[in-house]
Amino acid sequence: MKQSELLQLYKVVVEQTGFKEDMNNPGWMPKLGPNDYRSILRHGTHNGKPAMLKVSPQENLVKIAQDFIKYQKETSGKPVICVPNILENGKIPGAEFLIQESSPQGVRIIKNWPLATPAEKEEVARLYWETISNFPDYDLAGEWTISDYFVMRLDKSLAAGRDYGVQTKGFISAREKDNIIKFIFINAQKLAIQPFFDHFSNTDIVKANNEYYIWESSIAPKPEAAGIALWLWGATMYAHDIPTDQWQDEMKSWISTFKKFAPTELQADLELKININLSERFLSTLLLDLPLKRSPFDKLSDAEVMKARVLFRELLKDIGDFIHD
Predict the structure, then answer these.
(1) From CA 99, how far away is CA 16, in angstroms rounded?
(2) C-alpha angle with apex 324: 322 to 325, nearest 5 degrees?
(3) Cα pseudo-dihedral 109, 112, 115, 117, rounded to 10
(4) Which of 76, 101, 126 finishes a domain?
(5) pLDDT digits (tens, 9 = 90+) for 102-112
(6) Is there a domain that residue 110 lies in?
(7) pTM to 2 decimals?
(8) Is 47 left (phi over 0), alpha (psi -120 to 50) or beta?
(9) Are 79 and 129 part of one and the same domain?
């Protein structure tokens, strides 16, 4: 949606809910492509409480709110990632909105992101597996299969590239793209679908008072180990200025740590499951994020973008023999 159109929808929601925007603490507008925005998020207050308002013409924010409320009820008192309280949600013509209480002031788990200490890696791994083991059971039967998930994700990347006229030459070849997709679908049936957060990264989580709060991350059907892959992909997006061999060692260390704290019955094929998910994320980065210079690459020079391109290609080589220079 165009920026001007989305801002008008935001204005309607503000008038309807009484949300008061904090003019000294600006939010953001996630961008899909040139003058194409997915949503608008703003800091402020709602009925006197610090809050964040999200308005989107594309996301089912009412269902997201219902899922969050279920998650809060069924995980209360358990050592899992917390979600902020829902203050109000609803629909207006052309969009839906969600107002959540702001997360408490806190810190990120990884202080020197994306590089982490062994203790920080173990903290993340424990948190991930505790959250997985206590995650509520959402009814996904008949809605999503592994094929549905990867077809949707890959079609989104490929269609967006065509819609925005992205030039991927120099980032990835047609043969390489086909090889990666082949690897994903040959191995996809080794994965089961389970509910998890749609985003899972150091930049999504705030640690406060010995609790962890995740922000701007809905609950969605995800393949097994997708959360781990999201964490590693999120870190890699910020690793463009780290030597490639150093980051390859970091990835191995992260995977080893996640495996160490995994339930025994899940350890044997965990790395393969992570790599299936990582392949899709890395492919999307080479198809869209790098050519379009999406965040966090928006401030990089062309030379720095190409350096990041080398990093993602080398990591894909570590997964399988489908990248060729």
Answers:
(1) 12
(2) 160
(3) -60
(4) 101
(5) 978 899 999 99
(6) no
(7) 0.90
(8) left
(9) no
